[in-house]
């Protein structure tokens, strides 16, 4: 055990420390003739073409009076235009603030005000976003390609002098998911983002020969950094369907030679169910990555068997510009049930006395590294709570073994305390999800007069099964105090826009009954 910054030992994995770069340099480093983005059945663009369109956007933004440090909101789906606008905004030192196109009018107003946006770029048909911009008097551009394929007119000026190389400027502004508290604003710099992207590249040995199939929304850090920016940093190609569709997934993957994809467990589960009807071609992918939510080992093994490839689980969060830890591909080791080792990121544990531990647990997971944000915007109280001894507190509880592999045991606020016994809901989730009749499971604590809290659960079933059978299944695999007292059967579980299960929301559903 040790305290403070002078830690003699930590687990960061065997990786080199990447050099920070402004994001537009990612595009410039690639072969301009190589395919950067392919929208299956719609369009495609080379690195050179993405750069040219980004330059047009940059010129338009500068001409509108936006400069370094200004925030430009984006309301766009997974399109080529999103990519071009994002790089156009960040190239001149402005900050891109992507928003979920599915928000309603009041949500757009709230987020645009919180972002302190100077202008917005919207996709056609974004009526609620347009109305919100008009109500706020916010200038906005509709990103609609003209007959010549350009979003804006000819470049009226040379923007070379406007390109910004200051890697400490914020390039991206996102909000935390807000699953356990009010969403907090997270500014991420060019350094945070480019280093995180390079960490992903090195973790999975990505090269210009790799083709990523993007099934995550680009307004989320998983899709934006874990897939888009890492692909651009490797000089590879990204397939960008407008939305995830299990019906066209394998057709797109095989037609365009996809070598990997990254997704939340929910999407893996959907593809697995689809594959039960029409078995997918095995060995299509070099690897499959899972992140943003716990991956039950049973699901991992099922996907590996059906897809005929290695599945690796990673650990990421918005405040770390996505990836913090990951399991390794060969010649490294993949350990189901863990999120692997720190990858270019120092990972440790914070015990109840405030000391930093390099292994052991369960205790709070803390991280530090050049990809980690410097602080939430305009939120000194949250910052005071979030940082200790130079480490960022993730709010997750975990265990680190002798080899540096991290196992996440749950969110600290979600750990169930049943009569003094601390129960990880993630552990019970995994056991329930392993039952052949269960496709999804989530467990949570509810108030109890006798024990303080009791374990309850909710499941989505593949086939009918008695609740008593599910409880017995858990009882045979876990201590009796971990067995859910009540299990609710639902047709679907509530999720965020990125497919992450909302444990706290499920708990509230039944507490309010």
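-> sequence recovered:
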């Amino acid at each position: 055990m040790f305290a403070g910054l002078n830690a003699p030992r930590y687990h960061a994995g065997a990786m080199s420390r990447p050099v920070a770069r402004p994001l537009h340099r990612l595009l410039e480093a690639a072969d301009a003739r190589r395919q950067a983005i392919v929208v299956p059945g719609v369009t495609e663009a080379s690195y050179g073409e993405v750069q040219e369109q980004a330059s047009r956007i940059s010129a338009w933004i500068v001409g509108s009076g936006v400069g370094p440090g200004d925030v430009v909101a984006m309301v766009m789906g997974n399109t080529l235009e999103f990519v071009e606008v994002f790089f156009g905004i960040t190239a001149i030192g402005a900050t891109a603030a992507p928003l979920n196109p599915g928000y309603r009018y009041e949500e757009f107003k709230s987020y645009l005000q919180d972002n302190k946006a100077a202008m917005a770029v919207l996709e056609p048909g974004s009526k609620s976003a347009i109305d919100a911009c008009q109500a706020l008097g916010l200038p906005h551009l509709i990103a609609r390609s003209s007959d010549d394929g350009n979003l804006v007119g000819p470049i009226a000026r040379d923007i070379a002098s406007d390109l910004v190389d200051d890697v400490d400027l914020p390039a991206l502004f996102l909000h935390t998911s807000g699953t356990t508290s009010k969403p907090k604003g997270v500014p991420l710099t060019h350094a945070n983002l480019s280093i995180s992207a390079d960490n992903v590249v090195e973790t999975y040995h990505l090269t210009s020969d790799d083709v990523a199939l993007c099934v995550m929304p680009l307004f989320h850090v998983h899709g934006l950094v874990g897939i888009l920016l890492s692909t651009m940093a490797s000089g590879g190609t990204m397939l960008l369907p407008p939305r995830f569709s299990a019906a066209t997934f394998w057709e797109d993957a095989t037609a365009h030679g996809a070598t990997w994809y990254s997704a939340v467990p929910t999407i893996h589960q959907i593809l697995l169910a689809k594959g039960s009807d029409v078995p997918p071609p095995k060995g299509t992918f070099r690897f499959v990555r899972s992140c943003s939510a716990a991956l039950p080992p049973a699901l991992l093994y099922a996907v590996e068997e059906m897809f005929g490839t290695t599945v690796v689980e990673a650990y990421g969060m918005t405040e770390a510009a996505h990836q913090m830890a990951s399991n390794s591909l060969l010649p490294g080791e993949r350990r189901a049930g863990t999120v692997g080792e720190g990858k270019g990121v120092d990972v440790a544990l914070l015990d109840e006395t405030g000391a930093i531990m390099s292994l052991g647990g369960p205790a709070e997971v803390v991280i530090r590294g050049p990809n980690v944000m410097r602080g939430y915007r305009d939120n000194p109280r949250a910052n005071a709570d979030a940082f200790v001894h130079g480490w960022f507190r993730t709010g997750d509880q975990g265990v680190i073994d002798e080899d540096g592999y991290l196992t996440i045991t749950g969110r600290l606020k979600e750990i169930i305390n049943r009569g003094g016994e601390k129960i990880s809901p993630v552990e019970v989730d995994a056991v329930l999800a392993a039952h052949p009749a269960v496709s999804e499971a989530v467990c949570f604590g509810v108030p109890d007069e006798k024990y303080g809290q009791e374990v309850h659960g909710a499941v989505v079933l593949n086939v009918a099964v008695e609740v008593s059978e599910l409880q017995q299944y858990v009882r045979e695999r876990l201590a009796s105090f971990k067995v859910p007292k009540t299990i609710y059967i639902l047709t679907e579980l509530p999720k965020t826009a990125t497919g992450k299960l909302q444990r706290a929301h499920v708990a509230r559903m039944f507490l309010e009954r």
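The longest helix spans residues 47-63.
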